Amino acid sequence: MRYAYLGPQGTFTEAALRSLPDAAGAEQLPYATVPAALDALRRDEVDAAVVALENSVEGSVPTTLDELAMGDPLQIVSEIHLPVSFALLVRPGTGFADVKTVASHPHAQPQCRRWLAEHVPDAEWRAATSNAEAAQHVADGHYDAALAGSFAAARYGLEVLAEDIHDVADAVTRFVELRRPCAPPAPTGTDRTTVAAFIGEDHPGALLEILNEFAIRGINLTLIQSRPTGAGLGSYLFWMDFEGHVEDARVGEALMGLRRVVADVRFLGSYSRADQVRPEIRRGTHDADFTEAAAWLTAIRQGHPEP
Amino acid sequence: MRYAYLGPQGTFTEAALRSLPDAAGAEQLPYATVPAALDALRRDEVDAAVVALENSVEGSVPTTLDELAMGDPLQIVSEIHLPVSFALLVRPGTGFADVKTVASHPHAQPQCRRWLAEHVPDAEWRAATSNAEAAQHVADGHYDAALAGSFAAARYGLEVLAEDIHDVADAVTRFVELRRPCAPPAPTGTDRTTVAAFIGEDHPGALLEILNEFAIRGINLTLIQSRPTGAGLGSYLFWMDFEGHVEDARVGEALMGLRRVVADVRFLGSYSRADQVRPEIRRGTHDADFTEAAAWLTAIRQGHPEP
Amino acid sequence: MRYAYLGPQGTFTEAALRSLPDAAGAEQLPYATVPAALDALRRDEVDAAVVALENSVEGSVPTTLDELAMGDPLQIVSEIHLPVSFALLVRPGTGFADVKTVASHPHAQPQCRRWLAEHVPDAEWRAATSNAEAAQHVADGHYDAALAGSFAAARYGLEVLAEDIHDVADAVTRFVELRRPCAPPAPTGTDRTTVAAFIGEDHPGALLEILNEFAIRGINLTLIQSRPTGAGLGSYLFWMDFEGHVEDARVGEALMGLRRVVADVRFLGSYSRADQVRPEIRRGTHDADFTEAAAWLTAIRQGHPEP
Amino acid sequence: MRYAYLGPQGTFTEAALRSLPDAAGAEQLPYATVPAALDALRRDEVDAAVVALENSVEGSVPTTLDELAMGDPLQIVSEIHLPVSFALLVRPGTGFADVKTVASHPHAQPQCRRWLAEHVPDAEWRAATSNAEAAQHVADGHYDAALAGSFAAARYGLEVLAEDIHDVADAVTRFVELRRPCAPPAPTGTDRTTVAAFIGEDHPGALLEILNEFAIRGINLTLIQSRPTGAGLGSYLFWMDFEGHVEDARVGEALMGLRRVVADVRFLGSYSRADQVRPEIRRGTHDADFTEAAAWLTAIRQGHPEP
């Protein structure tokens, strides 16, 4: 197995990749941008790719969404939730008093603002392209400290001076493992499905129509994002994550409904939820209910309404 | 063929029955009440029955709805629209000045109120069980005139003294032809389907849920009536007529949805509309759209999203 | 006080009228038809009128709905629920073996069918314009027994041979007390409101639009009936009863919404429910929630979003 | 006037700021991160701030949304649409053949991928914290070329070697001008309103409930994004942009409805749309319709239903 990921080494994305069971012993190839990692997968240079999807400290969310929705098709086969936990990395021997400069990706600094103001109030912040690059700069002696995951310390020969220094507890970044289009993994009972629905013309009320397809079948959405498609004003797509698996009858019928009402829909995968949340299946929407209803319809069409 | 109908002879219901192509030469049996006519059909004493469903001058609507929704199953196979047109029937030789009493079903009198006040202002009104019975009373010499359809004149040896005397133009009564449960007549493109949906417990929002099953598939309702089922407070049924035929994909899926969300549903027939109104089929709800969406679902479930 | 009601004396409607606290000692005037009773009220000949609205054994429902929705305006100020309970009335001295004919309104016979088949299997049924008229016919010696409320016995010098002979238990007829348009009675906390909403042109989806106005404010419908208006095909009205009082903020806003989305709406009254059912008021729809939201809106319009 | 913006000088954000009429002659202060720019406004160090909201090549969107929705309140008073147009900036005298390295923000490189592969196929890409920083690196001689807006050339003493080199035409970035909370600018007829709605507990169906508040009043959404609030699983907010101004009656009532149904809602501003699109106002939702409906409600509450 060869995995592509958004590098460089030492990023949260690499940590997410390393948490995958199949990643142990696999080849792990860092790419400089999300599109580069995905193209490597599309060109068959790797077998899978791991990129951030939601709430990333590395800021790659809109790029990932747009690439998956509009680039050559790929498919999500699993997801990884990684707690956001920043550490202050320094060269061995550096103490708090020595920290005059702190480097990080611009998205990391605001997340540690309060801690920095309290513990290294006089340190100046310096921007880096990624937190891993910031760690490299510290290792190179350009800056005194870097904000990064503690897992990055060993990779760059640095030490953890302080841990868990981010201001908001319980932040989580969501990553996805991508493959080339394939049959989805088998349902687990705690599945999520992702689609991108395209609204071709200015179609007010399209969102309500779409949501109704899910609502009448008792399917909860867990994420929704509207994005312009770049094909002119009023041309939108909705990225939607929802509970259930494409093999579930209620999900299948909702997807067919979606297919019928929007200009286009791209299936982006059914996969086990990282948080293992089991959906509450509403009365009348179990697979057995769909089977029973289909049998009843057949009976009345044939003139035998009461079996 | 033997037909049951709500009698006696000379009612609008008999006129409706006579308008059926198959009724010519068939045996036509009047029954005193709607339940009696339907029971005759259930017991195989007749092959079909004709009763009023909507807006009847004979007042049988709630009885018909409740009998069809809750009695032993029967099925609508065709409908008849009959313009409501009252005539003033008298014994031969009677003139306006001779009319001192006018008899009719209590529902007929209000529909001719203004005309009666203008043309026979001094006549007193007398109630009869049906307009046909009123005609019989006139023939028997008990009253001077009867409000009834002009077709009843010949039957009772009466004359039409005035025609089209009802106050509201364009009123129509809707009758249905019933059979024992059977395969529905083939779709004509201008079909109507009737169901009764039962709401078992106090289920606020049930109606909205039901309507959404139709709305998301672009199916228009043409009649809706809530009726208590007699099984306790909060136990309701909705009688619903809507556009389309049970063979239509959009109707089939809506019916299955209905079946899944309500306590029970009874299919009451798909049949050609008397008014020949062709439904506008919304984008994405043609049979071909359902077929295409099902093929797409199969493809993505098998891992071939782009055929 | 003078009350009009659908006569003759001895009907369920008279029994409903007599159950009103204000009816004791008031003048009670029977009218031959529902429109006649309502016109008497419109012309100021009486101060109030009592007519059946729902599930009547006397069959007057469609007439009542249409008269109130489309005739000169009247307003519901209270409602009465009367259990449907039939008795077999006979002349004193008549025994079961003597009953060869049973008379009633055509709607009453089906409701007692099973009992009649069991207890007087050989008796023939005769139609009457009302159950009270049937009782009069029995008193006059034309028939042997009448189906009617037991309260009618005394009025016609008859005896109750058997009581509670209707087949379905717990049937209830709903009557309403009408006045000329007036300020509604004060809210009681267990109120119902009635309106007629007119759909002017063929406006598919109108019903869903209407129901949404109620649903988003957590208001449950207790009755809905579509009725043709007589103004041409596709011109409908919806008669709707729902929980709450016009003085309630959620009801007021829903009514304004209704007013805005339909061709016309007629307010038919807010009044205490006969069954005293207290509505569950959904989170966010109490009067206080509307007041708070209005204060917030004022604040943000003025530039003081956080008070 | 003092303006904060996301720096450094030469970014698209600075170009957006410069397009504001009031910016001419105003003090313009670059900040290293979006939170830093917004905090400067909150602390009164500046009078306004300009940041990217949507589809930014600088990748700041999630940060901006979260800061505005959850940080100390600020308010949008205008928006700016800037066409995305990249140029290749070089030191004077550099030709295509001399370009061995190209630097840019990681989000810029994918947008120019095809052009780069065609015109400078052998150049290696280098990441920078911003395109402006990349330009500075070129000016310093570290790299040969930078991807940036052509407006950045003069600022860094560079030349435009090629213009309009991005692969997707018509891409637009949307920026907003922020102030401390204030009375919104007067309606223009082509307004947009922005809110953040908080869903406190796991409340499936919340989104549908919210959308219905807008839909029944004919208000179209132009952007929707769900975002976790960081307050635990299932705690979400919806960032929503929609047509209309808080002073419009339909918008006011929808906002009050939103206020009542969600855990909390933050008003983020009503302001003129940069694209000047005028909304279609649905039948029944003009200000005059709300005024008429309110007058009607008052009349029926007082007992004068027909004025």
TrEMBL record, chains A, B, C, D:
Record carries keyword GTP-binding: no
InterPro entries from the UniProt entry: ACT-like_dom_sf, ACT_dom, Chor_mutase/pphenate_deHydtase, Preph_deHydtase, Preph_deHydtase_CS
Domain Prephenate dehydratase: 2-180
Broadest EC class assigned to this enzyme: lyase
Pfam families reported in the protein's UniProt record: ACT (PF01842), PDT (PF00800)
Occurrences of domain ACT (ranges): 195-270
Pathway: Amino-acid biosynthesis; L-phenylalanine biosynthesis; phenylpyruvate from prephenate: step 1/1
Catalysed reactions listed for this entry: prephenate + H(+) = 3-phenylpyruvate + CO2 + H2O
EC number, as in UniProt: 4.2.1.51
Keywords, in A-Z order: Amino-acid biosynthesis, Aromatic amino acid biosynthesis, Lyase, Phenylalanine biosynthesis
Official protein name in the record: Prephenate dehydratase
